[in-house]
Structure formats: structure tokens, C-alpha cells
Amino acid sequence: MRTNMLTRRTLAASVFGAGAAVTVGPAVYLLFLRRWCLAWGARDDEVAAKLPGDEVLPDARLVTTRAVTIDAPPEAIWPWLVQMGSGRGGAYSYDWIENLLSLNMHSAGEILPQYQHIAVGDELPMGPGRPGMTVEVLDPPRALAVRAADQNWVWIFALVPEGKSTRLISRNRIATSVFAPAGRLVFTLLMEPGSLLMERKMLLGIKQRAERLEAEAGDGR
Fold first, then answer.
1. In Å, what is the CA distance from 98 to each residue of 86, 87, 95, 141?
2. What residues are paired with 138 via a beta bridge?
3. pLDDT tens-digit readout, 1-53
4. 112, 92 in Cβ contact below 8 A?
5. Residue 211 predicted with pLDDT over 90
6. φ and ψ of 93, to 5 deg
7. For residue 152, pLDDT beyond 60
8. What is the CATH number of domain 39-219?
9. pLDDT at 34
10. HEC string of the chain?
């Protein structure tokens, strides 16, 4: 009898705990963590700044602005950006996660000359059998913006020199109005943190690669 009572209490406590997590977790994210998630690494002036490509999707409901400082000039960072894509230079993020979705992403550790020449209107592949992203803004070595085939997502990269370093700013503009209210909630609670996980790894991956080559070039001077 006592064992059954303990089992019921344990089950009740587990159910209560799960219910509390489902209720409190989203509230904590929305109230305390969301702003940090959407603007990881970015300064207030960078979040507020107008970037080339903002005009491609001016009525975006969701805008994320994330950034990192790279100890290299824009010219040393630009090649890593233009070679991104499935079957190209990859995304410098968690390849194993990308490839669970069959995206064929293999992050390059070197600059690939064959993928350095892109033009406005070119399509960067996002995965086998998937729509690519079209180059909308190309201003080397300062700005690159691409837009998804469904027109509802624009991804902007800006390179802003700061002395001998560069701020790499990554901005996503997404028209979440295409989702039903429940879909927007799921996107907010799951996709936003997920995008930070992948994008943070990408920004740090570009930083590590660009700084390594810049250091190697300095050693050879």
C-alpha cells in the first residue's frame, strides 16, 4: 500500500513538474531570453542599423541581428561568405545536424577558388532537391543579401571595419505572418533558439577560419 502511494505521489509530482515546465519555460524565454536570443553578440546600434538588403523584405515580422568581432579585414572574411551553400563551402555550423536533414553541408576549412565568383541573380543551393537562395545584394567586401525562393526570408551579411578588426553582422528577416497563430508560437519557441544554436556556430566558425588564415599570412610576411 505504502509503495503504491509513493508511486502515485511520484507520478503526480512528475506530471506537475512537466506541466510547470511547459507553462513556465515559454514564459521565461519570452520575458527574459528572447531579446538575447534574437540579438546575440550584436550591439544596440547594430540592431537598430539599416543594412543593405533590409529593403528586400521591409515588412518582416521577425528580425534577428547577431554579430561577432573578427580580427581580420573584410577582404579576408568575404571569401568565406560567398562560397557558402550546399555542395559548396557549407555553412560552418554543425554539419551533422544539417546532414540529418539531407542538406549536403560540408564546411570547408579553406577558401575554394571555384566558388568565389557570384553575381546578383545567382542561386546559392540550400540542399539537394530544395529551393536555393537568390543573391539580391552584392557589394564586396561589405554586404551580401540572399532571399529564399518563397520570398519570405532574407538573410543579410554585413562587414563593418573597426580598426584592424571587422564586425560580421548576420541579419535574418522573416515574414512570419504566413504562419497561423499556433505556427508562429511554435516558430518562436523552437525555431528561434534553434537558429541561434546554428548561427552562433556559423559566426564563430567564420571567425576561426578567417583569423587562422590571417595569422598564417602574417607569419609568411
1. 10, 12, 5, 27
2. 144
3. 555 554 544 444 333 333 333 445 667 776 668 899 999 999 999 999 999 99
4. no
5. yes
6. -115, -145
7. yes
8. 3.30.530.20
9. 86
10. CHHHHHHHHHHHHHHHHHHHHHHHHHHHHHHHHHHHHHCCCCCHHHHHCCCCCHHHCCCCCEEEEEEEEECCCHHHHHHHHHCCECCCCECCCCHHHHHHCCCCCCCCCCCCHHHCCCCCCCEECCCCCCCCEEEEEEECCCEEEEEECCCCEEEEEEEEEECCEEEEEEEEEECHHHCCHHHHHHHHHHHHHHHHHHHHHHHHHHHHHHHHHHHHHHHCC
Q: Which three cell numbers stand for residue 179?
A: 504562419
Helix axes 74-82, 192-219, angle to 10 degrees: 130
**Nine-digit cell at 36?**
538575447
Do 156 and 170 touch, CB atoms closer than 8 A?
A: yes
User: Where do the domains of the chain lie?
Assistant: 1-37, 39-219
Task: Please give the Cα distance from 33 to 106 (Å, whole number).
Answer: 31
CA 150 vs. chain centroid, Å, equals: 18
C-alpha cell recorded at residue 212? 587562422
Q: CB-based contacts of 180: which residues, under 8 Å, 6+ apart?
A: none
Q: Cell for 116? A: 568565389
At residue 178, the pLDDT reads: 56
Instruction: Name all contacts of 101-104 with Cβ < 8 Å and 24+ positions apart.
Output: 101/127, 102/127, 102/128, 103/127, 103/128, 103/130, 104/128
Q: Which pLDDT tens digit goes with each residue over 48-107?
A: 999 999 999 999 989 999 999 999 999 999 999 999 999 999 999 999 999 999 999 999
Cell of 28: 521565461
